[in-house]
């Protein structure tokens, strides 16, 4: 097991918490078609918070539970900066959590 797994698992919980606190947590999943987008961050079918909830968090949970290799890079914070440019204070907690996640991924290099 990668030694970063516990810290990454904790960070994923913080990301989920921030989505819930801001009211960006959806109780109903998007359609199968929306989830099958091939675009980065599913920008053509999902809002960024939906992508975090239904694609990113699900995939990262699978990686941790199945002891799969972690990604070599992560640029989620950059996307969050663009998406939430008009809501800097409202999104601060989420952006900080994503920044820490990106750093945990980069630290392995």
List the helices and strands and how they pair.
Elements: H1 5-21, H2 32-35, H3 48-65, H4 76-83, H5 92-106
Helix pairs in contact: 1-3, 1-5, 4-5
What do you see in this structure?
It holds the Pfam family DUF446. InterPro entries: UCP006257, YqcC-like_dom, YqcC-like_sf. Residues 8-104 form the YqcC-like domain. The protein is built from five helices and no strands. The chain has a single domain, classed as YqcC-like (de novo design (two linked rop proteins), Up-down Bundle), CATH 1.20.1440. α1 runs antiparallel to α3 (48-65), α1 runs antiparallel to α5 and α4 (76-83) runs antiparallel to α5. The longest helix is centred in the middle third of the chain and has 18 residues, at 48-65. It is 57% helix and 0% strand. The chain is an all-alpha fold.
Question: How many helices?
Answer: 5
CATH architecture term: Up-down Bundle
Question: H/E order of the elements?
Answer: HHHHH
CATH topology category name:
de novo design (two linked rop proteins)
C-alpha Rg (nearest Å): 14 Å
Name the CATH class: Mainly Alpha
Number of strands: 0
Number of separate structural domains: 1
Work out the oligomeric state of the chains in this entry.
single chain
- In CATH terms, the superfamily is YqcC-like
Q: What portion of residues is helical?
A: 55-70%
Pfam families: DUF446
Domain YqcC-like: 8-104
InterPro entries: UCP006257, YqcC-like_dom, YqcC-like_sf
């Amino acid at each position: 097991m990668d030694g970063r797994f516990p810290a990454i698992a904790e960070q994923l919980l913080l990301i989920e918490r921030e989505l819930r606190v801001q009211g960006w947590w959806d109780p109903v999943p998007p359609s199968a078609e929306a989830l099958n987008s091939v675009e980065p961050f599913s920008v053509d079918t999902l809002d960024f918070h939906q992508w975090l909830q239904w694609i990113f968090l699900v995939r990262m949970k699978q990686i941790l539970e199945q002891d799969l290799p972690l990604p070599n890079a992560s640029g989620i914070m950059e996307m969050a900066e663009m998406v939430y440019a008009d809501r800097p204070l409202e999104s601060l907690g989420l952006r900080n959590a994503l920044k820490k996640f990106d750093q945990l991924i980069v630290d392995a290099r």
